[in-house]
């Protein structure tokens, strides 16, 4: 298949490109490189893999339309990667999420591309009253601007399915962690320790607990589900089925850092920031019933990631 | 209270303004008059009611910000009124719905206005597998671009509640019918009969069945719920609790028309158009439990509306 991956030079995107190439697909990466990094894909260029990189923004509809011609399926992963930005600049997620997704769908409609797989998020559930939260949970009242945008994108996609006969895969990600991570709690903790190896400040009381999934598990599960399910709208929570607290993450990062004496300090409060969800536990029975089993549980994902990022970021140099 | 009503010169908006004025509120109508009509509000101007009309678009954020100062609560009703437009021009609902709602919320944030009541729609449920559909139904996969926009607006509102401490009322309307109607099936049927009093073409097989609510019932229920509920997000289906088929609507319009011989003809198919929902039945137990009882059931709403619109449109002149 000829596959367009938006955000394909990013954290999840670059791992997905690896999976797609391994299975013999030809890939067009469409990325504005605002957070994506070309060196995440350098091995494909070095090996002469069928990977083409288009540096362009999804808000540039003309360039998007040109590159949509001949595409069999779009994996739409591009988005503002930092959920916390919404509290300062309020139109980032509207533009980079909702309007960008409208452009993707419109370019698909005009080019006749009929399949889209979308990286949504568990944040569409907001502060769900049911934990672990299943895919059919309602109401969907996200509490962050990032979550609002993910919900808006899901709705746009389902409308294009209903109105223009697209087929869609909607994946609601747990917190994705792993190699090449460019943001998120583990990334932040390591950078904090790099600045000050004696103390680690944790936003909130540390009891915030969430489901995690290792990035290569995440990419593999997406591709598995696209290849094995065939409804008009296929929708799945992607996670490892358990949760890990921020307190435990801090402990694991400190353990893996090898630093002798780190004081972990909590700023207090049940949320790390306005729009943070204190508890997010995802039901992943449907993913597992599809025949996919993740390699790591949440704590395993965290430890694996802490090791990889400490190596990448270079805590000890 | 000083209340801003977006779309306040429109079909539902003008009835809501009547209710708000009757209860002693001061009202700022914000309407671009694209489908709203100043004569729907003329009686307030004639009587010297505390109603001010601002002719401006919600996409004009500066004007919106100016008019938001000193507002206690926004009733946000403005939207593209014709759900079927989405199949031709695909960005109407994105702009007039989603981006316009973002502007309303941003203007509220900047002005310190803390309460919003929003006219959402039962179309957020898409083709629900549970009928009558309760408010906590999931997943929310709308099939029209209009529905996608309503879902996006709900998400934006819930994100502003979660991030900036707004308080919200989300009302998912059944099909609203009544005096001053400017679109919709009854309106269309009467205009068709005006053009040709011998035959009435019905889109689809006529078995599409939906919940209806009379417009003044709709406006009264919104105001009742805003005055009597106080959660961070208060969300209610608004309807009359039963359904009426398009076939029955056609029969009622023909009966009320008094025309002696009308041949009702069906174009066939279970949907009136791409994005139409064959069956939409809303559970309104929560609305009724709040102490509000609508005056009309679905069929009563239709007959009342047919009479009023035949008079307004002038079928016999």
Strand residues, percent of chain A: 15-25%
Shape of chain A: globular
Query: Based on DSSP secondary structure assignment, what is the total number of beta strands of chain A?
Result: 14
How many helices of chain A? The count is 10
Elements of chain A, N to C (H/E): EHEHEHEHEHEEHEEEHEEHEEHH
Query: Overall mean pLDDT score of chain A?
Result: 95
The assigned CATH architecture of the largest domain in chain A is: 3-Layer(aba) Sandwich
Main beta-sheet strand count, sense and barrel state of chain A: 7 strands, parallel
The CATH C-level name of the largest domain in chain A is Alpha Beta
Derived structural class of chain A? alpha/beta
Estimate percent helicity of chain A.
25-40%
Distance between the amino and carboxyl termini of chain A: 43 Å
What would the CATH topology of the largest domain in chain A be? Rossmann fold
Taking all Cα atoms into account, the compactness measure Rg of chain A is 19 Å
Largest interface: A-B, 43 and 43 residues
Question: Reading side by side through the largest sheet of chain A, how are the strands ordered?
Answer: 3-2-1-4-5-6-11
CATH-assigned homologous superfamily of the largest domain in chain A: NAD(P)-binding Rossmann-like Domain
Tally of structural domains of chain A: 2
Quaternary form: homodimer
**Low-confidence parts of chain A, pLDDT < 50 over ≥5 residues?**
none
């Amino acid at each position: 298949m000829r596959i367009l991956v938006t955000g394909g030079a990013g954290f999840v995107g670059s791992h997905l490109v690896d999976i797609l190439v391994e299975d013999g697909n030809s890939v067009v990466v469409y990325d504005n490189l605002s957070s994506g990094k070309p060196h995440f894909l350098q091995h494909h260029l070095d090996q002469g893999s069928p990977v083409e990189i288009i540096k362009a923004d999804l808000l540039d509809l003309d360039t998007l339309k040109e590159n949509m011609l001949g595409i069999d399926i779009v994996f739409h992963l591009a988005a503002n990667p930092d959920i916390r930005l919404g509290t300062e600049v309020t139109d980032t997620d509207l533009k980079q999420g909702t309007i960008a997704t409208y452009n993707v769908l419109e370019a698909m409609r005009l080019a006749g591309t009929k399949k889209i797989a979308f990286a949504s998020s568990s944040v569409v559930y907001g502060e769900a009253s049911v934990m672990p939260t299943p895919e059919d949970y309602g109401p969907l009242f996200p509490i962050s601007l990032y979550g609002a945008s993910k919900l808006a994108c899901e709705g746009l996609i389902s409308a294009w399915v209903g109105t223009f006969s697209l087929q869609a895969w909607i994946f609601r990600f747990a917190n994705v962690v792993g190699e090449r991570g460019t943001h998120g709690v583990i990334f932040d903790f390591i950078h904090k320790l790099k600045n000050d190896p004696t103390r680690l400040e944790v936003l909130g009381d540390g009891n915030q607990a969430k489901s995690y999934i290792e990035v290569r598990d995440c990419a593999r599960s997406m591709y598995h589900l696209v290849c094995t399910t065939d409804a008009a709208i296929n929708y799945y929570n992607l996670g490892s089925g358990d949760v890990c607290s921020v307190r435990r993450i801090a402990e694991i990062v400190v353990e893996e850092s090898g630093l002798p004496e780190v004081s972990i300090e909590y700023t207090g409060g049940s949320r790390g920031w306005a729009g943070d969800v204190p508890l997010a536990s995802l039901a992943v029975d449907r993913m597992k019933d599809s025949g996919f089993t993740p390699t790591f549980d949440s704590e395993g994902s965290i430890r694996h990631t802490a090791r990889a990022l400490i190596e990448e970021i270079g805590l000890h140099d």
